[in-house]
């Protein structure tokens, strides 16, 4: 039995009782906010500075995040292992001490649902994403989590397929019912180039890990994923070939950017499995579709990154500016007109 089949089978045995809201783990006196696509109509403020017992990183497991997503998806559609699973199921680090676990699936409306997880006594990593088929312009579900004993770094979003800063129609279509949210503190500078691939509801944060915050993060993941599945459920198939092509190119552009510039696990993968294997994993698994959805190169989409010798400039930002504070207000309006060098 493949890893995907094992995950799919075990997900049906996992309980969905943990689907409480994002803030349900805060003390009783704190207002609660349910993050679902049908509620989410008020914002709250809260503090991460509560005293909690010391937290050991190996107490964290992102496995239940994956299990919830598979279980919830299977209750809404027919989910089957992806052909990618034949090649990408598990991989050992070059030193033989760390195992990378992978799973990949597809469904009638989902081109690829995939996960990469790493669990050791000192580090926990989850890279989880779900990509719609080009016949649907639904956002891309994205969850990138990294935890060690001192820090957790979190990126959770429904990445927009099309521009939500300048195109109000797309933002209203998919995000109006999800705004405002009780979001976690902003995690620091984010390059202006990267920002175009994030939505007004993006959670980008850093914190010192403990069980309480881990539970809050799990509830956020549950609510965001439920919202995404609801969007997929409600999405109507597009029959206009020109619009399908437009969606296909938008997803291809996203994949090209993520694989080249902003996948947060790229450096870690290089250290674990070497540069060649890391690039193959990025291109052919994590961001599968680069060779299938289009023929344009990274520089075709982002010519400003072309160096004098025609290669890609390595630095992440050409503009050299970033958003130090959250660039959307509580109503989801873009207010990030001030850049920090």
From TrEMBL:
Q: Does the keyword Signal apply?
A: no
Signal peptide bounds: none
- Alphabetical list of Gene3D superfamilies matching this protein: 3.40.1500.20
* Protein keywords: Oxidoreductase
Q: Which GO terms describe its molecular function?
A: cobalt ion binding; phytochromobilin:ferredoxin oxidoreductase activity
One Pfam family from the record: Fe_bilin_red
Where does the record place the region Disordered?
Answer: 1-21
Q: Which GO terms describe its biological process?
A: phytochromobilin biosynthetic process
Indicate yes or no for the key word ATP-binding: no
Question: Which domain of life does this protein belong to?
Answer: Eukaryota
Residue stretches spanning the membrane:
none
Q: What family is reported? A: Belongs to the HY2 family.
What protein does this entry describe? Phytochromobilin:ferredoxin oxidoreductase
């Amino acid at each position: 039995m493949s890893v995907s089949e094992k995950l799919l089978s075990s997900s049906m045995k996992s309980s969905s009782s943990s689907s409480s809201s994002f803030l349900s783990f805060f003390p009783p006196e704190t207002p609660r906010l349910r993050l679902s696509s049908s509620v989410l109509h008020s914002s709250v403020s809260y503090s991460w500075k509560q005293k909690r017992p010391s937290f050991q990183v190996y107490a964290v497991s992102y496995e239940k995040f994956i299990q919830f997503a598979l279980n919830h998806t299977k209750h809404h559609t027919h989910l089957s292992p992806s052909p990618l699973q034949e090649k990408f199921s598990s991989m050992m680090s070059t030193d033989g001490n760390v195992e990378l676990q992978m799973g990949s699936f597809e469904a009638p409306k989902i081109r690829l649902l995939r996960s990469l997880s790493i669990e050791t006594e000192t580090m926990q990593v989850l890279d989880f994403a779900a990509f719609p088929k080009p016949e649907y312009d639904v956002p891309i579900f994205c969850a990138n989590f990294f935890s060690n004993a001192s820090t957790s770094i979190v990126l959770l979003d429904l990445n927009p397929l099309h521009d939500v800063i300048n195109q109000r129609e797309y933002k209203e279509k998919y995000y109006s019912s999800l705004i405002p949210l009780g979001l976690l503190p902003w995690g620091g500078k984010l390059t202006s180039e990267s920002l175009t691939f994030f939505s007004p509801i993006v959670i980008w944060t850093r914190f010192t890990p403990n069980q309480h915050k881990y539970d809050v993060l799990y509830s956020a993941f549950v609510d965001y994923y439920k919202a995404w599945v609801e969007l997929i459920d409600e999405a109507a198939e597009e029959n206009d070939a020109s619009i399908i092509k437009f969606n296909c190119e938008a997803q291809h552009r996203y994949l090209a950017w993520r694989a080249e510039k902003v996948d947060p696990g790229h450096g870690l993968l290089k250290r674990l499995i070497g540069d060649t294997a890391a690039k193959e994993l990025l291109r052919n698994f994590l961001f599968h579709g680069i060779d299938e959805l289009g023929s344009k190169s990274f520089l075709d989409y982002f010519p400003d990154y072309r160096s004098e010798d025609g290669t890609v400039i390595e630095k992440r930002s050409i503009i050299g500016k970033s958003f130090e504070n959250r660039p959307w207000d509580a109503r989801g309006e873009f207010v990030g007109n001030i850049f920090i060098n």
